[in-house]
What does this fold into?
Amino acid sequence: MGRLSGKNALITGSGSGIGHTTAKLFAEEGARVAVVDLNSESADQTTTQIIESGGDSIAVCGDVSTHDEASSIVGSVLQSLGRIDILVNNAGVPLEKPLLDLVEDDLGPSLAVNIKAPLFMSKHVIASMIKSGHGGSIVNIASMAAIRARPAMPVYVATKGAVTSLTRALAIDFASYGIRANCVCPAATETPMLKKRIAAMPEGAVEYRKRNSESIPLKRLAEPIEMAQAVLFLASDESSYITGHVLPVDGGSTAGTLIF
Amino acid sequence: MRFSEHVVIVTGAGSGIGKSIAIKFAQEGADIVIPDINIDDATTTAKEIENLGRQALAIPTDVSSSQEVQSAVGQAISKFNHIDVLVNNAGINLYKKPFDFTDDEWNNIIGVNLTGVWFFCRYVGPHMVSQGKGSIVNVASIGAVQASYYRAPYMASKGGVASLTRALALDLAEHNIRVNAVGPGMVETGMTRPMESRLGAISKEFGNWVSPMNRWSTPMEVANAVTFLASDESSFITGQMLSVDGGLSSGNPMGKEWPPVLDSQ
It folds into this structure.
C-alpha cells in the first residue's frame, strides 16, 4: 500500500525539475498523477516515465496562469480522473532583475505564474473538492526567498511571499471542508535546470557550489527528491492536522545567520 | 520500515503524546528507550512496545536532573550500543495568573521543559557525533510563536525549546545531525483533558470553535510529524519547528460565527 493509494493528484509544472520528481514519487506511492505543464513535450515525458515504471498518469498541456484556461485544465483532469484529492502548485518563474531596472512589462510573467496560477488553480480545484465532499490537500511551492530575501530579485521575493500568505488564507477558509493547505519553501535545488546553469558559470561548477553552500549549515545544495519527500508528507494523510504551515526545506538556512 | 534497527529515545513516553510517538516508532521497526519520571507509566508503555515485537527499556528519570539524564543515556548505550533518534517530549504545564507562580514552580517548568531538553541533547549528542549521524526532534508547542493565557513559564520554556532547536541545528549540522521541533496546538491528552475545572479552562466545544479545523488533534497526528522529521525523508530539513496545529497559528477566528456549534458528545 502506497502512502497515496487511491488518491488523484494534479501537479503544475511537473514536466521538469522539482515538479517532475514529485510526480514520479507520488506515482510510486500509488497516486494517479495529472502532469500539467506549459510544455507538452516535457509533460508527456514525465507521464511516459511514470507509466513505464508501472504507475498511472495523464499529461495535460496548458497555461495555468489565466482564470479560464486553469478552469478548463481542471475540468479536463476531472473528466479523466473523476476527482482531485491533491493539488501541488509547483509552477513558478524566477526574475533576476534589480528594482531600479524594473519596467512595467517585467511583472507580467511573475505575477501570472507565481501568484495568479496558484490562486486560480486553487479556486477551481477547491470548488471540485467541496463538491466531492472528500476534502483534499493543497501544497504550494514557494521559495526560501519568501523568508530570507535573495539579493536583486525583488519581484521573485515578493511573489513567493504572496504564496506563503495565500497558503494561510486557503488553510483557514477551507479547513472546515476538510481541505488542508501547506507550503514548501525550497532552497537552491540541484534540478537539471540548475545543474546546467552551474555548469555554465564562469567561475566553474566546483567553485560555484562551494560558494553557494557556504551559507547553508548542511553545506550542500538540495536534491529534488528532498523537496518531493516534504511535498509527499504534506500531501498525505500523515499530516492530517497540519494546515497553513510554511515549511522551509533549506538545510538549516533560515534557522540562523552566519553572524549577528 | 523506516526505523528498522534504529534505537529511539522518547522522553516522557509513559503517557500522552510521548506514548503515541514511542508506539509509532516501534510500529515502524525501532527499539525504544523510555526515560520517564513515572516508572509505572513507562513500564506500561514498554510492555506495549514489547508486544509489538520490539525491545524497550523503561528508565525512571527526572529530565531536569543532569546526573539522572547522564545515567539514563548511559543505560541506553549499554543496552543498545547506539542511539539514532532522540525525541525530547517530556513536558509539564501549570495554569496560574502570572504573579501567582512561585519561584519553585517557575524553576520546575523551565527545568523539565527546557533544561531537560538541553541535558538530553548534551549527553546523547556526543554519541551521535561519533556515529556520524543522528536526528533530534523536540516537542515544542505552538506556544513558542503565539502565547495563550495563564501559563507564562510554559510559553517561555517552549520559546526556549524552539530557539535551542535552531541553535543546535546550526552547531550540529557539520556532524550530520539534524535538529527539528514540532509545534503541537490543541491535543487531546491526559494533560489537556481536565480543562473544565481550572483557570483559563476552555471546553472541548470552545476549542473546536477556535480551531480552523473545528477539532482537536490526536496524539498520533503529532507522532506522524515527529517520525517524518526523524526519518531520512526530511534529510534537508533542520532547525525548523513544524506546526501541527490545525491552522491555529495561520489565522484569527475573528468573524467566525458565534456561538460555536456544540459538540453532541
Observations:
- Helices of chain A lie at 17-28, 40-52, 67-81, 107-132, 154-174, 192-199, 205-213, 224-235.
- Residues 34 and 77 of chain A are 7 Å apart (CA to CA).
- The mean pLDDT of chain A is 96.
- Chain A has two domains: 8-187+223-250, 190-221.
